[in-house]
Design goal:
This protein is of the alpha+beta class. The chain contains 10 helices and 23 strands. Strands 3-5-4-9-6 form a 5-stranded mixed sheet, with no helix packed on it. The chain starts with a strand and ends with a helix.
C-alpha cells in the first residue's frame, strides 16, 4: 500500500494562545479552545471567547490536542481561536477528512510515545506532519467511515441508555427519600464516621519487590468507572505479604476516589464484589447502619456535597477526616432494603446494555486495527 505524509494532503495550524486580556465570557469575538479539557462529546464546550485571536481553525477542521494528554480529537463546529494545546488540520475533501480523523484516533498511542517534555508531554508540528496516511480511493475511505460512523452512533446510543438508567435510579431515590440535602421527610442525620467504618488505602513500599505479586488485586482510581457498579479488574496485584502491609476490604464495601487532579474525578464510587486492596487515593466505606446499594446511590448523587470545600489550587484532596464529617440522613432500614431491590432490577438491565456496549466497542477497535493498522 502507498502512503503519503499528512503534510502532503493537509494544512496543519499549530495553536497560539492570545493575550489573556482578550478573553471574555460575553461571546465577543471567537470561541477560544485551549486543549482537550474543552472537548465535549460531539463538539468543544464554548466556555471562553477571544476578541483578538492569533491562530484560528475553520469550520470542519480537525482539532487535535498536542499536549497533556496528546491525541484528544474533535471537529471545529464554527470558526474558533485555538491555543497552544491544540492544532487544527484542514482537509477540504469530507471523506478524506473523516478518514484522517479516525486514522489519528487509531494512532493515539504512537503520537503519545513521540511526546517530549519533563513537566508534561507534548508533540510539535513535525510529528503531525509525518503521520503516514494510507492512499486508498475515496470510495474505500467512504465505506470505512460509514462503518465506523455507524458503530460510533451505536456506542453513543448504548452510553445514552446507561445514563438514562442512572437518571431513573436517581429519580426513584428522590421519590423514596427526598433530596439528601434538604431531607424533606425529617430523617435522623448522622456523620459518616458514626454510621460507617472509613479506611484510607495505601501503597506498600516499592522498595520491597516481595510486596507485589498475584495474591490480591490492588485497585486504583482508574478502576472506579462512572456508571459501573463494581470496580474493573486491576492491572497490578499485591502478594500475600503485601496484602498484610496494604489496606483491604471484602465484598460489599464502597470505594470512593478522594484524591485526583480534577474535581470531576473526585467522588466516583463503586461497590466491591470481591476482596481487594486499594491505594491511598481511595477511601473505603464499610456501612454499619446502611444498606450497601442505598449508600452507594446516596454517595453517588452527593458528589457536589463532597467537593464543595475542596480547593483545586492544590491537588484535589478529600481527606478522611473531612469525609467522615459529612452528614447524611438515615432512613428506616426496611425502606432502604425496598430501594435496594429496585436498584438490583435496574442493574440487570444495565448489565445487558453494558455487554452490548462492550461488544460494539470491541468490534469498533477491531475495525480500527483492520482499517488503519
Amino acid at each position: 500500500m502507498e502512503y503519503k505524509a499528512l503534510k502532503d494532503i493537509a494544512k496543519i495550524t499549530m495553536g497560539q494562545s492570545p493575550d489573556s486580556s482578550s478573553y471574555n465570557e460575553e461571546k465577543d469575538g471567537l470561541p477560544f479552545f485551549q486543549g482537550n479539557a474543552d472537548f465535549g462529546e460531539l463538539y468543544p464546550n464554548e466556555r471562553v471567547w477571544c476578541n483578538e485571536p492569533k491562530k484560528v481553525a475553520e469550520p470542519g477542521d480537525i482539532l487535535i490536542s498536542v499536549r497533556a494528554p496528546i491525541g484528544a480529537l474533535n471537529y471545529a463546529k464554527d470558526k474558533c481561536c485555538i491555543g497552544r494545546g491544540l492544532a487544527a488540520i484542514t482537509i477540504e475533501d469530507e471523506a478524506e477528512r473523516n478518514y484522517v480523523f479516525h486514522l489519528l484516533k487509531a494512532r493515539n498511542n504512537d503520537l503519545n510515545q513521540k511526546g517530549t517534555g519533563s513537566t508534561f508531554k507534548a508533540i510539535g508540528k513535525n510529528v503531525l506532519e509525518e503521520v503516514a496516511v494510507p492512499q486508498i480511493s475515496r470510495d474505500e475511505q467512504q465505506k470505512c467511515m460509514d462503518m465506523m460512523d455507524l458503530l460510533e452512533s451505536i456506542i453513543r446510543e448504548r452510553k445514552s441508555q446507561l445514563d438514562k438508567f442512572d437518571e431513573l435510579i436517581k429519580a426513584r431515590f428522590v421519590e423514596f427519600f427526598g433530596d439528601p440535602r434538604s431531607n424533606p421527610y425529617g430523617y435522623d442525620k448522622k456523620s459518616l464516621g458514626n454510621t460507617c467504618k472509613v479506611i484510607t488505602g495505601n501503597t506498600p513500599s516499592r522498595k520491597v519487590p516481595e510486596y507485589y505479586g498475584d495474591y490480591i488485586e490492588w485497585i486504583k482510581t482508574d478502576n472506579i468507572v462512572s456508571g459501573l457498579l463494581h470496580p474493573t479488574k486491576a492491572s497490578e496485584c499485591l502478594s500475600e505479604q503485601g496484602a498484610l502491609e496494604g489496606r483491604t476490604v471484602d465484598e460489599n464495601a464502597i470505594l470512593m476516589a478522594c484524591i485526583a487532579g480534577s474535581v470531576a474525578s473526585i467522588g466516583r464510587v463503586c461497590v466491591t464484589d470481591r476482596r481487594v486492596a486499594f491505594n491511598q487515593q481511595i477511601n473505603a466505606v464499610v456501612p454499619e447502619q446502611y444498606n450497601i446499594l442505598f449508600l452507594y446511590i446516596l454517595l453517588k448523587i452527593s458528589k457536589d456535597y463532597f467537593v464543595e470545600d475542596i480547593n483545586m489550587a492544590l491537588k484535589g484532596i478529600l481527606s478522611k477526616s473531612k469525609f467522615e464529617e459529612k452528614e447524611f440522613f438515615v432512613p428506616p432500614m426496611e425502606l432502604q432494603n425496598e430501594f435496594d431491590e429496585f436498584v438490583k432490577q435496574v442493574d440487570k438491565s444495565k448489565v445487558a446494555v453494558q455487554k452490548a456496549l462492550d461488544e460494539a466497542q470491541l468490534l469498533f477497535d477491531s475495525l480500527m486495527q483492520q482499517y488503519f493498522g
